[in-house]
Amino acid sequence: AGSLPAPTCGVLNNDTGDWSLTVTPSVNASDVTVRLKRAPSSCSSNETGSFSESPCIVQTLLVSASRNSACLAHLLIQVEIYANSSLAHKNVTAIPDPVHQPLGPCPCNLTAGACDVRCCCDQECSSNVTALFRESCLTGVFGGDVSPPFDQLCSARRPPGAPGWFPFLCVQSSLANSPFLGYFHHGAVSSRPHAAAFDAYLHTEPKDMSDSGYKQGDPVMTAAQAYLTVPQVSLAGQCVRDAPVGFLQNFDVRCITDLDAYGEADSVLDAGIKDGTAGGIVIPHVVYEEAADLGQVLAGAETLLSPGSAPRNVTVEGHYLFRWNNRTISEMHVRIVRATVHALQKGTMTQRFTVKFLSYNSGHEKERSGNPGYQLGRPVRAAHAGRRDPVAALSLWQPAGRGLCASATLRPVLFGENALSGCLLQVGIEENCTRLRDKAAEILDSLIQATHVATRGNSDDRDLGDGWLEITAAPDPGADPAGGSGKGTCTEVPAQLSIRILTWDAGAVEGIAQQEILGAEKRVSSVTWRPQCGLTCEQVGLFPLSASVQFIQVPARLPRPLTRFQINFTEYDCDRNDVCWPQLLYPWTRYYQGSILRRGPSYARCVAKGLLLAAFSVVALLLSDPRTRGRRA
């Protein structure tokens, strides 16, 4: 027994003889690693036997932590290294046959020829070393319990929920005969080097299969052997600029683009597109238009004036229309809406791109929203009874720029999608209240330019009797209209439009539920408007208008409550079993209402006939009694 040396914290030293120390800082602590730099000659051994009982190195290390030459903490480490340890890697691990014994009987044995700490199943650990960590052995499969007692074993604990006859059918067997044996297979290692996932299926050139005709989803090819690309929105919500157009795949997307990083893409439409036959080319018909109002597409725009800078053109909208016939494309029409901005203009721009495939023999008739029921996400069909052309629409606002009602565009109400939109109406502080009410009501009425909605997605527009419902107007719960009360204050100003649409499942076609509209209601709510003044009142204020659409699913049919007989005696329930005993006397029960197809007898006639038949049966039974015939004799 010796004495430990006094720690010297004045000089920083991470090396002591054959040992080196590494400190890795973490969040709230530091990881200290002590390594042996070289193996001493006393630990070299050529023995291939098991673990040696006597260690070749027994040392005690003192690790000190200091700050500003002052010792703060000490760590005492006792090191024992044996000759046949990880310093000699000459043993070959024998992998057992997984058919007869578990594969990897000691999973925590990670180091060949050395004792792994806390691995009590490691055969390379001596009894003295195992005694150091016997109380902290690794448990479970990783600790060596690779053959746990299975549920069918008699010596195992009875599993929860086991039936009462479990002890009579249990298996008496040893743990070595595990039912998990043989679950492994003999694999082979491939000699081909593994390629990265993003390189294995990377095509440097577009794959053109259009000469034999397009299939749904195939990319449309240009005459220059390239993909026809239109910006699209990915699943992550990002705008992909070079996304190929798929055959017979329609879409309508909007992309937010930074003007500072915007660059006009080269047009690939000059050479045309391939029509789907060998050598066939379709030349697109392109029409260019100028944007009417830049305030609807530009947001946060700033112009940095610079001498000599010329304006530039940007694409605001791109509409692509294809005519298809079987597996070919017969026509292509493109409408490009452009705008002229300053060369150094900053801000964001909202671009819209649409692609639509129409049949070659289809006209310009209005598209259906389903056949026969509505499809989710399709526009709700509407009509106006007082017009020569009854086709109308239910719309919501799609504000842009400052969010003013004057510059807001409209978008259709989509079936099954609840939505909320709004815009801002500029109002002067000296605004006449009657004029403000009329202006707000006119803007709200512009969203519903219809008197009827279609119950089905394929209702005929020319016949309002073919499945059309009138839109009912709910009264405003507010007070009767009044004039202004105070300077700049107006009461009973229409501000909120609420549209409620009732839907239900009308049936199914080929297993697909068909949804129809049961009714539509609109309600306009009024508020009191007064300017929001701080220290001073501005001459122009903003009055918010809002519109909402709510779809309410109505149950198609209320389920009939179960009777006490159906609850207690499920084996006699006609809806759950093939044999229905309660319907043995079905014509005489209250559920029988007569045959509809054959115009059979009603319930009253069936009861009368049944009673008459019962009377005849009783009379026949009495006449056939032997005692009655003996009495006659």
Q: Quickly count the helices.
A: 6
Briefly note the structural class of the backbone. Answer: mainly beta
What does the average pLDDT come to? 76
Q: Can you tell me the number of structural domains? A: 3
Radius of gyration from CA coordinates = 43 Å
CA-based shape: extended
Q: In summary, what is this structure?
A:
This protein is mainly beta and 633 residues long. It has helices spanning 127-130, 197-200, 433-445, 564-568, 603-623, 626-632; strands at residues 15-16, 19-25, 30-36, 57-67, 70-81, 232-233, 239-240, 251-258, 273-274, 281-282, 285-290, 298-303, 312-325, 328-341, 345-359, 381-383, 391-393, 395-398, 409-412, 419-428, 452-454, 468-470, 472-474, 490-509, 512-529, 540-553. The chain folds into 3 domains: 1-42 and 52-88, no CATH class; 127-185 and 207-302 and 310-359, no CATH class; 380-475 and 490-553, no CATH class.
Describe the fold and architecture.
It holds the Pfam family TCTN_DUF1619. It is extended, with a radius of gyration of 43 Å. It folds into 3 domains: 1-42 and 52-88, no CATH class; 127-185 and 207-302 and 310-359, no CATH class; 380-475 and 490-553, no CATH class. The N and C termini lie far apart (132 Å). With 633 residues, it is mainly β. It has helices spanning 127-130, 197-200, 433-445, 564-568, 603-623, 626-632, and strands at 15-16, 19-25, 30-36, 57-67, 70-81, 232-233, 239-240, 251-258, 273-274, 281-282, 285-290, 298-303, 312-325, 328-341, 345-359, 381-383, 391-393, 395-398, 409-412, 419-428, 452-454, 468-470, 472-474, 490-509, 512-529, 540-553. Strands 8, 11, 12, 13, 14 and 15 form a 6-stranded mixed β-sheet that branches.
